[in-house]
Task: structure prediction
Amino acid sequence: MVSEEILRTHLQELRRGTVVVASLVALRRPDYGYALLQRLTAHGFPVDANTLYPLLRRLEEQGLLTSEWNTEESRPRKFYRVSAEGETVLDRLLDDLAAVQTSVTGLIEGVDR
Amino acid sequence: MTSLTDRYVAATLRSVPVARRDEIAAELRASIDDMVEGRSADGRDTGVVEREVLTELGDPARLAARYADRRLQLIGPTYFLVWQRLLVTLLSIIPGLVGVIVALVEATVDDNIGGAVGTGVVAAFQTAVQIAFWVTVVFAVLERVGAPLDLPGWTVDDLPDAPADRDVPLSETCASVVMLLLTIGFLAWQHVQTQILTPDGDRLPILDEALWTSWLPFLIAVLVASIGLEVAKYRARRWTWRLVGVNALLDLAFAVPVIGLLLTDRLFNPEFVQRIEWVRDGDNLNVVARGVAVGVAAVTLWDLVDSAIKARRSAR
Result:
């Protein structure tokens, strides 16, 4: 049996890129950091706050997200939404994710157990 | 808001680019407040929840590095191998060279051989520390600046030769054994030699006769053991770390007594020294003794380094 440590590292590697995809998909509907964190967790994408907040800023700097401060509620919050550019990138990412899934399926079927 | 969050936000902002501080501050504060509010909805104490949230966010410096997209490493994979190779190359040549030169210069201006060796060792060590420090500083700066090195990339032509099946050729073993036998032979010959005689025509040993009851048998035993080591090395086909250890012991067991005897004027037969006019003159005996001592030390040091290098190479 492999150690928990090794298993955890591999799962982490596997999940790393999917946080970006999940965030871009979720932010088709504008949201602020903490609410996005909860949505992602609820949909099976557990992500650490100290990973997600800097990630959102980075995606914004790359032009994949746009942001807007909402001052209507009790405290001002920064709402992010996916930009047109982000949507293009997201399409490519989703295609690739599907391609990976297809490849894995094909590989599994092709290999005798 | 409570001071813990204030302190956390301030600590995070400290290492974030100035241009983005205000916005990051506002967003981070709002996010922390959201998290605290969300988790204390079930009536838990906000103070406890705040600690929990900040603990989860972790070290502010780490969070700031993530915001600034800064890597938390001194020298990253881009530069590491170049840094390592350069450092190993420089450290394997320069400190030893500096140490030997300093020791030699010191030995010629000062009478104290032990002190000269000490000064050389200190100089070599200081040089090594300086080299390691400055090379690392330069590469750490390159890492921060992200300057491209534009070095030629790796090609298959850079591959080193595969380790030979036998690193220790028979010729080398034979040469070493012959040298050791000649040395033993010399130790015996000098006692019965008839080239240089006393005025009465008696034989005149070169080395102090008193040594036959003290150090000479020991030195000969060390030489015989060294022959054994050469044979063992030939059979092992290459230098192993165990052989390096035994070799170091034998080297030191030979060099330390010889140097000690040289420096305390107990190696040469006083009568023999008297027979040779040039050696007798002034300080010449001391100069010869010191020169031979430095020579023995240098050869021993070289042998130790050489064996370690070869063992390291064949261990790969």
